[in-house]
Specification:
Elements: E1 10-11, E2 32-36, E3 42-46, H1 59-69
Antiparallel strand pairs: 1-2, 2-3
Length: 70
């Protein structure tokens, strides 16, 4: 059962040379995306179950925070 990601989410680009994004710790999905939810708040989002990582100031911190909890 897939959830619909809110239309106001703005996907960010994670450079290919960054560390790999770990699967969702809740559903195991690998469909994990970085999103900006405001001009200064970024987080990682599981598109399958809508689990979210902690809000961070930039993409790199959001990715690292997601991977620490996965």
């Amino acid at each position: 059962n897939r959830h619909q990601v809110p239309s106001w989410f703005c996907y960010m680009t994670i450079p290919n040379d960054q560390e790999a994004i770990k699967p969702c710790p809740f559903c195991g999905s690998v469909e994990i995306y970085g999103t900006w939810i405001s001009d200064s708040d970024a987080l990682m989002l599981c598109e399958a179950c809508l689990a979210q990582g902690p809000m961070c100031d930039n993409e790199e911190d959001a990715l690292q925070a997601w991977n620490r909890r996965a």
